[in-house]
């Protein structure tokens, strides 16, 4: 007798499952379809993103090979294309190499314009924006307004800034250009007294301090 009741219970369960499937089956199909679509979409995005990165790396590599071969104009055009079409990382690498080539060709104003573009690029890490600022000031025309250059450099002079000691050297030079020897000595002493400053930078600062105070 117990077996009969068990069979009846199983039949009722199957009936309830059948009713539930009739009621909610379409929703299950939709949910499964959405999961498949999202998974496929992510895989496509991932594949597309990786493919794009490989293409950008290849374009940059080819531009660098061209630069090394001495075809400067062709290399500059290729680097400009990479910088205009690539994501932030490859754009930064292309811009830095482009500016370096321009400096080699004595096209300093164009190189500085690229460094300033890097300095204002909010899509890259602040470290590299700071590098752009330092390089822009480093290669600025000697007739540039020293007050303007000092204002640009100011954030890099703060404690903890990545490029602080290079910025302090530049600030000392700008102060001397402006005729402010005391301010220049102050910047140099900051470098000399900083145990964490790079050895080469401290050595240069020590020699300059002797010259200024002698």
TrEMBL record:
Its main location: membrane. It is found in: Cell membrane; Membrane. PANTHER family: ANCILLARY SECYEG TRANSLOCON SUBUNIT (PTHR38035:SF1), UPF0070 PROTEIN YFGM (PTHR38035). GO terms for cellular component: plasma membrane. It is a single-pass membrane protein. Pfam families: TPR_21. The lineage of its organism: Bacteria, Pseudomonadati, Pseudomonadota, Alphaproteobacteria, Rhodospirillales. Keywords: Cell membrane, Chaperone, Membrane, Transmembrane, Transmembrane helix. This is Ancillary SecYEG translocon subunit/Cell division coordinator CpoB TPR domain-containing protein. InterPro entries: SecYEG/CpoB_TPR, YfgM. One of its GO terms (molecular function) is protein-containing complex binding. The chain crosses the membrane at residues 27-45. It comes from Aestuariispira insulae. It comes from the Bacteria. The keyword Transmembrane helix applies. Residues 21-129 form the Ancillary SecYEG translocon subunit/Cell division coordinator CpoB TPR domain. The keyword Transmembrane helix applies.
């Amino acid at each position: 007798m117990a077996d009969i009741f068990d069979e009846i219970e199983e039949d009722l369960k199957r009936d309830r499952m059948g009713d539930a499937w009739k009621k909610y089956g379409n929703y299950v199909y939709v949910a499964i379809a959405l999961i498949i679509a999202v998974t496929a979409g992510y895989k496509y995005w991932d594949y597309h993103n990786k493919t794009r990165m490989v293409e950008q790396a290849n374009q940059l590599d080819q531009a660098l090979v061209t630069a090394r071969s001495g075809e400067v104009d062709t290399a500059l055009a290729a680097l400009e294309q990479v910088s205009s079409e690539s994501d932030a990382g490859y754009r930064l690498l292309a811009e830095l190499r482009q500016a370096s080539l321009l400096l080699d060709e004595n096209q300093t104003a164009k190189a500085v314009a690229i460094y300033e573009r890097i300095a204002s690029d909010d899509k890259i890490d602040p470290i590299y924006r700071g590098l752009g600022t330092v390089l822009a000031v480093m290669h600025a025309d000697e007739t540039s307004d020293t007050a303007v250059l000092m204002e640009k450099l100011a954030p890099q002079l703060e404690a903890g800034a990545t490029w602080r000691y290079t910025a302090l050297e530049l600030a000392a030079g700008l102060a001397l250009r402006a005729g402010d020897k005391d301010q220049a000595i102050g910047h140099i002493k900051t470098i000399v007294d900083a145990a964490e400053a790079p050895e080469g930078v401290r050595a240069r600062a020590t020699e300059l301090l002797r010259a200024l105070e002698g």
